[in-house]
Each structure stands twice: as C-alpha cells, then as structure tokens.
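Project standup — Tuesday

K.O.: blocked on the structure for the chain from last sprint. Re-posting the sequence here as requested.
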Amino acid sequence: MNRHVVSTAPSATETPRDDWLRAGILAGFLATFAMTVVLVAAYWLARAVGDPDGGVLQQWSWGLVNNPVAEMTTDSVVLAIGVNLAMGLILAAVYARFVEPRLDGPSWWRGVRFALVPWILSLIVFLPLLSGGMMGMGIGAGPLPILGNLILHLVYGAVLGLVYAEAAEDWLDDTDADRANAAGAERGAALGVVIGLLVGIVVGWLAGPMFEGLASRPASAIGLAFIGAAVGLGVGSFAGMSRAQDVAGGSTARR
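H.V.: unblocked you, prediction finished:
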C-alpha cells in the first residue's frame, strides 16, 4: 500500500471515516502538544529579548509577556493547561467529524485551513474576553499577538491534518472490523470522559493546596477536570477499541 496516498489525495466525500473519533483524538493530542511546545519556546524567547526601554521589537517582546492575559494565565497555570488540552481535543473532534471530509487537497493544508477559524476567533473573541483587547491590541505588543497566534494555529492545523490522514494507513484495513472498533472506541470514550472528569475534579480539589501560587483551589479542580476528561477520552477510546477487537477475536475463535 502506498503510504503517501492519504496525505495528498482529495477527500471531499462529506462522509467521515469510520475511525474518525480515535484518529481525531490521537491527532488532537499530538497537535496540541506541538502547539504547546512552540508556545513555550516563543514565550521564553520573548522573555529573553524583551526590554521596556529597548527598541521597538524589544518593547513589543516585553509587552508580550507582561500583560493582563499573561498574568491571568500565570496565576492559573493548571486551569490554562486543562482548557488548552480540552479545546485542542474538541477542535480535533470537530475537524475529524464534520470538516475534514468536506475539504480537498494535501492533508496538512486541510488542517491549516481549518485552524484559521479558531485563530480568528481567538483574536476577536477570546483575547478581548481575557482583557487583551480586540486583535490583541490591548497587550501592547504591536502585531506580535496576531502573528504569534497565527503561527501557533498553523502548527496545530498542520500537525492535526497530517496525523489524522496518516492514521488511516495504519487502522483502515477491513470495513466490518473498523466499524466494530469505532463503536467500541465511542463507548469507551464516553465512559472515559465521565470517569476522567469526576476523578479530575476530586483530585484537583483535594490537591488544591499543592498548587498554591499556580491556581486557586476551584481553578485547580476545573483544570484537572479538563485534563482528566481529556486523558479519559483518549484512554477510553483506545481501551474500547481493544475490547471490541478482543470480542471479535473471541467470536471468530468460537466459530
């Protein structure tokens, strides 16, 4: 089988793949991780070169790490991590279920086009809600919030599209088996979300004092609830798929 067919062939079928959920979860995890790595690297670079008394670029870099949005994130690190992971997985699920089947072109380009929508929303909705001003202009970092946000979402979209497309080569071999795996994955994912959410809330509340200085007790509980739900979604999906394979294997053996 040619491993490059899925990445480059058009995909405008308007019908999601049978494995859209588990493939979307995997792609969402990796895309969110890649975006987070770039975010951390950019933050430390801006912090290293930023100077309120320096040149224009140095002043913009200083403003990028010294603003209400950055302070709010720093004060609630656990919550920020949880929300970021949850949003990354939710967007990946939307992409896999509704958007990717309706797009054509290379896989990375499909993901990038999809990521432009949350990029715009982050500039005109989320940044203003976090006191960053429309398009991030209230941060005092010139065009850096716009450009930085764009880079982050391009990374997310490209990785999302590539990983989601490549997963088909590994998992889509037999239609009947794939449908059984997909059903098992969905059941496992639903159960995993509920369990992860509940465990995250309890652990976050009990461990709240440990995160003093990083987040308040309620914020810790909410943040760990998001993280727990995301982890439960992934673990439950793959566990459900494995169980479906075991059941199918047992049925075959009994025959």
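K.O.: great, moving the ticket to review. The CA atoms of residues 140 and 226 lie 31 Å apart. The longest helix spans residues 217-254.
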